[in-house]
Amino acid sequence: MTEYVRGSGPYDAERVRTEAGSTEDDAYAALAADPASGWRVVAEEPPAPAGPPAKSASKGDWVAYAVSQGADQAEAEKATKDDLISAYGGDS
User: How confident is the model over 24-62, as pLDDT tens digits?
Assistant: First the structure.
């Protein structure tokens, strides 16, 4: 997900989050590339990991991976690390 903002100085008039690769993301990326538009990129999420983290990885890494695989953020955070490993892999 990428976050775009339009505004002047420290004031934000609009803030939009888009899914990477979507038509909307392409449109806002073009706006952000044009300095006259007033739009700029303020945050980009790193791409999802290619595969599950190692079993020794932190619970936070497992939560992030589970969410990247479609899990609900709150539910993933409630689950134990072992539950996440069981549900989302972890052969490494």
Answer: 999 999 999 998 898 998 877 666 557 898 899 889 889
CA distance 53 to 81: 11
Which are the contacts of 58, defined by CB distance < 8 A and separation ≥ 6? none
- HSE at residue 61, side-chain half, CA atoms within 13 A, is 13
- For residue 77 the two structure tokens come to 């955070």
Tokens describing residue 30: 């073009």
Question: How many C-beta atoms lie closer than 10 Å to residue 76's C-beta?
Answer: 21
- The SS3 of residue 2 is strand
